[in-house]
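About this split. The held-out portion is used to measure sequence recovery: a designer receives only the structure tokens and must propose an amino acid at every position. Recovery is the fraction of positions where the proposal matches the reference. Here is one held-out target exactly as it appears in the evaluation file.
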């Protein structure tokens, strides 16, 4: 008798599962620790925007009702913010959902998708899940090699994924350089520009990819409320593209993919510019604090434009374990072929300091 699991297509069985950061509750159970600092999933150390919490409280009595499957209010606000129409917006259960919708809409067996080495793990995952071929292009100094990525486009290529800034490296392609490269991508290839960390960019580094939508008919921009907006637990993100692209993605989208609480919280968070600015200022200071600490410890790190830093610690598995025992959860990135690095999310100043102290102890244990 054949086992039903063996009949599952090889491309599904071959998927390497996504490895999330260890939840605080799990470490509590495993080691009996009570004071745990999680710097593993690039979450906002300030928590959610207070305006989002207020909106959630107000929406609780409506929980028996299905959410608005068209996300009218949130889409209207996003369209207004970006000077687009609602037809330019698709909402996702986190931006991971948007990435998956893009894959399910534009990829399939006999097609290929391009992404960089050391890029966000979800690109190869969603590519493989729909039976398409992933083409990983070697990085340059841990950054996307855009010229090589464009050159890697084949006749069967349908998506080119670009993360800017990228996770877990934190690398950033300057706006003008990015635009020039994207203009050379053939029109049958959807460019998925993942800007999950764009709100963290310093004013001088900012660029406006949304304005490129008018010239690049094959551009899809993906953004999230999980990082700077502090709503990772709610799962809400969005994609911006020309209406024809959005319309196709909406056909494969689950009708109620974004929950009612996520819709109202995101709508409120979008207007909380003060919170966003506080988040960015705290993050800049935290990046500097961690960088300065790594320098003091003699640890090389990749300069980052996100809310995290990847630092080269050598025996990363051992250092990771040592940090866990000291109550600090960071993220191993061996799965990104960075076996000597750990990725550390920026926390509150005292959390960053505790992490650096624990790191120093971990390194001393090894010596
Ligand atoms: C965190 C992250 C996302 C966001 O994921 P959500 O599903 O929106 O929580 C998307 N892309 C990259 C590169 C990320 O690091």
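Reference sequence for scoring:
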């Amino acid at each position: 008798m054949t086992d039903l699991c063996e009949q599952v297509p090889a491309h599904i069985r071959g998927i390497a599962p996504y490895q999330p950061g260890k939840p605080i509750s799990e470490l509590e159970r495993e080691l009996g620790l009570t004071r745990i600092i999680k710097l593993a999933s690039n979450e906002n150390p300030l928590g959610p925007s207070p305006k989002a919490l207020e909106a959630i409280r107000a929406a609780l009595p409506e929980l028996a009702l299905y959410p608005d499957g068209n996300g009218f209010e949130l889409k209207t606000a996003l369209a207004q913010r970006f000077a687009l129409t609602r037809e330019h917006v698709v909402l996702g259960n986190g931006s991971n959902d948007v990435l998956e919708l893009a894959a399910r809409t534009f990829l399939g067996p006999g097609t290929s998708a391009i992404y960089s080495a050391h890029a966000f793990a979800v690109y190869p995952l969603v590519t493989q899940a729909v039976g398409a071929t992933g083409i990983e292009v070697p990085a340059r100094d841990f950054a996307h090699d855009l010229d090589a990525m464009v050159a890697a486009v084949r006749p069967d290529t349908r998506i080119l994924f670009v993360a800017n800034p990228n996770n877990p490296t934190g690398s950033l392609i300057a706006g003008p350089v990015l635009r020039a490269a994207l203009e050379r991508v053939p029109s049958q290839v959807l460019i998925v520009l993942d800007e999950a960390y764009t709100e963290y960019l310093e004013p001088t580094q900012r660029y406006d990819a949304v304005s490129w939508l008018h010239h690049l008919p094959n551009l899809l921009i993906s953004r999230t409320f999980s990082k700077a907006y502090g709503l990772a637990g709610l799962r809400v993100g969005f994609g911006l593209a020309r209406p024809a692209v959005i319309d196709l993605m909406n056909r494969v989208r689950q009708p109620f993919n974004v929950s009612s609480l996520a819709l109202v919280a995101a709508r409120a968070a979008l207007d909380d510019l003060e919170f966003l600015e506080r988040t960015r200022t705290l993050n800049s200071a935290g990046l500097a604090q961690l960088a300065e600490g790594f320098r003091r410890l003699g640890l090389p790190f990749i300069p980052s434009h996100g809310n995290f830093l990847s630092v080269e610690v050598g025996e990363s598995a051992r250092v990771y374990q040592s940090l866990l025992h000291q109550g600090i959860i960071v993220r191993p990135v061996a799965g990104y072929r960075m076996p000597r690095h750990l990725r550390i999310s920026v926390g509150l100043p005292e959390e960053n300091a505790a992490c650096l102290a624990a790191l120093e102890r971990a390194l001393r244990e090894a010596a």
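Annotator remark: Residues 42, 94-96, 120, 163, 167, 194, 196, 224, 226-227, 232, 237 surround pyridoxal-5'-phosphate (CB under 6 Å).
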